[in-house]
Structure formats: structure tokens, C-alpha cells
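Priority: medium. Attachment 1 of 2:
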């Protein structure tokens, strides 16, 4: 198994000192997870392109951004994010009837593209899209808030996806978002996850490097 990547989610960071917060995880992060919420698709509001683009423009963030769009209109707002070839934009399958076109549109920005789903959406819906996707983000919680308990039903979704990806000989990454901690990472990696998104388990801790190491150690 190749090394599991950790993506700290800034949802649990102190937004008043966001760049400093991101700098505390730069050395252990495979990507920085940016949760964009519009108060419609999920019952919470966070940040949008202005803040994400400021992070990029600062020149102080060396890690690629993974922009998780929990919004009704990724067609309108997706193109407003400044992204490079290592950054990724992820949208939710529930918000569009034309996922191929949206993937194409977002890829035209020169970034990677991924898809996510709410826990109740049929995972099979994204099988036909796998070829086009760099990542599938499996939610371990109902999207909207950090610090929720991991839904163990997600493990089955990861297994089904992993099988499909393997059978298609595809290199789509499976990441898991929500409820990740040293107690839960083992089960999702065992099921086939390549990447762990964690907010409260990293930014909720004083020592962020140790927080990531604790999750890595739980896997060894
Ligand atoms: C939830 C977000 C997550 C969130 C996870 O809707 O998409 O990225 O930050 O938070 P934790 O890791 O605290 O469950
Ligand atoms: Zn997220």
C-alpha cells in the first residue's frame, strides 16, 4: 500500500489567523482542505473564492489546495477559484445533472477535479465518471460541520468504490472526509482509502504535527 496522505481541513482552524494556522501543518500535509459552504446545499456558511485566493496569493502556502465545494452552484463559483495544476476542485454529485460537462469546465481551469457525495447518495452514480476524476471524496459524516462522529456505513461505500476503481485499473484517489481520528483512520484505510481529510483531529489539537503523526501511527 502506498503512503496515506493527510489533508488538514481548515474548517477547524482559527480563521482570524488563517495563514499562520495553515503554516503549522504545511510540513505534514499532502493538501490543504478548504471547505466552501453556501448555507443552501449544507446548513452552514464558510468561505468562498476571496479567502481561498488570498491564501494562494500570499505565497506562504506551499501545499496544494483541495477545494471542497458544498454549494448549489459550482458552475458559477468554481471558475472563481485561483488554482494551479496541483490544486483540486471537488463538487458534489447531487448538484448537477451534467457532471461530465462540469468536470470538463473545471478542468479547463488547469486543476485536478474530484467529486463528493452526501452519505445517502448512491455511490454507483459516480462509476461512469471515474475515468474522468482525479479523486472521489467519501463523506464520513453529513456535510456541513466539523467535529461530528464518523458514520461507519461509509466503510462499505469505500469498499465498493475501491473494487470498482481496481477493476477499471484506474488511478482515482479515494479520500475520506469527516470523523477521522486515530480511532477511525484504520478502518477506512483498510477499506481502501488513500487520503484522510481531518479538521478537528488536527486543528483542534495544540500540536498539529503530533496530531498527524498520531493518525499515521494508528495505521502502522
Ligand atoms: C464537513 C467538512 C469536513 C470537516 C471535517 O462537512 O466537509 O471537511 O472539516 O471535520 P472533522 O474532521 O472535524 O470531522
Ligand atoms: Zn470537506
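Attachment 2 of 2:
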Amino acid at each position: 500500500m502506498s503512503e496515506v496522505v493527510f489533508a488538514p481541513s481548515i474548517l477547524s482552524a482559527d480563521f482570524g489567523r488563517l495563514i499562520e494556522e495553515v503554516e503549522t501543518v504545511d510540513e505534514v500535509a499532502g493538501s490543504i482542505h478548504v471547505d466552501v459552504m453556501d448555507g443552501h446545499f449544507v446548513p452552514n456558511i464558510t468561505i468562498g473564492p476571496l479567502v481561498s485566493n488570498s491564501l494562494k496569493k500570499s505565497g506562504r502556502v506551499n501545499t496544494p489546495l483541495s477545494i471542497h465545494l458544498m454549494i448549489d452552484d459550482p458552475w458559477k463559483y468554481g471558475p472563481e477559484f485561483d488554482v494551479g495544476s496541483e490544486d483540486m476542485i471537488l463538487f458534489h454529485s447531487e448538484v448537477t445533472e451534467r457532471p461530465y460537462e462540469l468536470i470538463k469546465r473545471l478542468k479547463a481551469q488547469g486543476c485536478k477535479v474530484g467529486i463528493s457525495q452526501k452519505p445517502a447518495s448512491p455511490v454507483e452514480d459516480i462509476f461512469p465518471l471515474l475515468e474522468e476524476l482525479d479523486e472521489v471524496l467519501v463523506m464520513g459524516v453529513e456535510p456541513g460541520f466539523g467535529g461530528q462522529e464518523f458514520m461507519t456505513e461509509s466503510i462499505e461505500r469505500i469498499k465498493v468504490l475501491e473494487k470498482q476503481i481496481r477493476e477499471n485499473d484506474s488511478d482515482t484517489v479515494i479520500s475520506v472526509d469527516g470523523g477521522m481520528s486515530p480511532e477511525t483512520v484504520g478502518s477506512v484505510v483498510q477499506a481502501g482509502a488513500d487520503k484522510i481529510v481531518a479538521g478537528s483531529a488536527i486543528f483542534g489539537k495544540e500540536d498539529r504535527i503530533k496530531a498527524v503523526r498520531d493518525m499515521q501511527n494508528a495505521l502502522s
